[in-house]
Specification:
By secondary structure, the chain is an alpha/beta fold. Helices cover 42% and strands 10% of the residues. α10 crosses α11. It binds iron/sulfur cluster.
Length: 471
């Protein structure tokens, strides 16, 4: 009862690279390097990349680490070349997080060609988070390419590549929780090979994601992103300026208390937390971890040492759970009261694993549309507004579907809610950036996908939110 199923081998003895570890089903440890802005000045660029070069050297030499992940990488091939040249000595040891922010089709194709020529076989596709500077102009036409379109492009152009997709399980209202999971399944249906869970501190959510996939009979590998957080980042996280990263005020206060003692103690406490999170994820059945927020090989080595020790220390779920709760003195990890969790009995010592019929779903009905929304949908559908042209139909589209009238939006796909109202223009499902109360990442309105979910629920067409798009 105490050993959850699905734990993976840990092969700390041999250096195998990212792709082979994932394919072999071995537990995979990645160190994530946040790529700096590329500069035309060679000296400036060399200086900016120095921590990355040192990290790449470390990850290439430490057999316990599968490799370096570089994120996010823009879609400008010339810039990508400038990053890859010094960071990528062996493509097997590198995974690249390809972002759809400021991307276009030609740039993405060029970037993929550059990755391929460097022997990189693992790509993590993400729509990308907005630059907080963009929050002030949510109505502007920001350029984002949806992660589903990125996945399809990689699949078509380089079928041999291993492609990952992101999910943000740290959602606390019922609509966002299910919207994230529906889109995750759409990404898998589109061709993603594995999932990367965005960073967070709420272990109940990491467990929920595993249980959700098992409840759907899906066994794709999941890598948990764990974040070494700097004191200066906490205010930005609480202020929702850190791209979908969520932290409770109690957790922030704990981190502040830890850092008020001295830097060494604070680092030790965070190293222990990351190691315990890694051990917990492994017990939940995760396939690996990606440690972010590290720009120094010495710190990376310390964290990996701690992770290795925690794997040896925690081989039993109850033992791990008691230690985790003691370490956090039952600090509330959810950023809001009565946050939604899909299952009852998460982080329960008597339920280490998902068991059909026993792992009960928590109550939390999905929303229904208002009468006005239903009427608009029915009228728009009856008028076939997704395909009709002409001024009267433009006016009807504006009135019934949202502020944009151009017919190139695929209105039937989004239940006649025009995706032009999404600052990223996403038609395949939401990004991972919604705030805990369901507000858009840009902070100006509720995420438009709440309305789309309510309409899909009312029409009994929720499965359409998971279907791969053949467009
Ligand atoms: S409307 Fe929703 S999907 Fe679009 S940017 Fe805002 S949070 Fe993301």
């Amino acid at each position: 009862m105490n050993a959850p199923a699905g734990q993976l081998n840990i092969t700390f003895e041999s250096h195998q690279g990212v792709l082979r570890k994932l394919r072999a089903g071995d537990f995979c440890v990645l160190i994530d390097y946040q790529a700096p802005a590329v500069s035309d000045d060679e000296k400036v660029l060399k200086l900016a990349l120095a921590p990355g070069v040192a990290l790449a050297r470390y990850t290439g030499a430490d057999a316990r680490v599968a490799g370096l992940s570089i994120s996010p990488v823009s879609a400008r091939p010339a810039e990508v070349e400038q990053l890859l040249e010094p960071l990528c000595r062996n493509g097997d040891d590198v995974a690249v997080c390809l972002s759809g922010r400021n991307a276009d089709d030609a740039g993405l194709r060029g970037t993929l060609a550059a990755l391929h020529s460097h022997g990189i076989g693992t790509v993590i596709a993400t729509t990308g988070f907005a630059d907080p500077e963009q929050y002030a102009a949510p109505a502007a036409a920001h350029t984002f390419i949806d992660s589903c379109d990125l996945i399809r492009l990689v699949r078509n152009e380089y079928p041999e590549m291993c492609v990952g997709a992101c999910v943000n399980p740290f959602k606390y209202n019922v609509s966002d929780v299910y919207l994230q999971y529906f889109k995750m399944i759409r990404k898998l249906n589109t061709g993603a090979d594995f999932i990367v869970a965005e960073a967070g501190w709420d272990m109940k959510k990491y467990q929920e994601l595993q249980w959700y996939l098992r409840s759907r009979n899906m066994t794709e590998p999941i890598i948990a992103r764990l974040m070494f957080v700097q004191q200066r980042q906490i205010a930005g996280i609480l202020d929702h300026r850190c791209g979908g990263v969520v932290m409770s005020r109690e957790m922030a206060a704990l981190l502040e208390r830890e850092s008020s003692i001295n830097e060494r103690q604070a680092t030790a406490a965070q190293a222990r937390r990351i190691a315990m999170s890694a051990a917990g994820c492994r017990l939940f059945g995760y396939s690996g971890i990606q440690i972010g927020g590290v720009d120094d090989p010495q710190l990376a080595r310390t964290l990996v040492d701690n992770v290795k020790e925690a794997f040896e220390e925690f081989t039993d779920f109850r033992h791990w759970l008691t230690a985790w709760n003691d370490f956090h003195d039952r600090v509330e990890m959810a950023p809001m009261r009565q946050g939604h969790y899909v299952f009852k009995r998460l982080m329960d010592k008597d339920y280490p694993d998902y068991v059909p019929d026993q792992s009960l779903h928590a109550a939390g009905p999905l929303p229904q549309p208002t009468g006005a929304e239903r009427l608009k949908f029915q009228l728009a559908r009856a008028l076939r507004l997704e395909r009709r042209q002409g001024v009267p139909f433009d006016m009807a589209r504006q009135l019934l579907c949202g502020r944009h009238s151009a017919p190139d939006w695929r209105l039937d796909k989004t239940f006649y809610v025009c995706a032009a109202a999404c600052p990223k223009g996403l038609e395949n499902g939401p990004c991972g950036g919604t705030r805990p109360d369901g507000t858009c990442e840009f902070g100006h309105q509720p995420c438009i996908y709440h309305r789309i979910l309510a309409l899909a629920n009312w029409r009994n067409e929720l499965e359409s939110l998971e279907a791969a798009d053949e467009h």
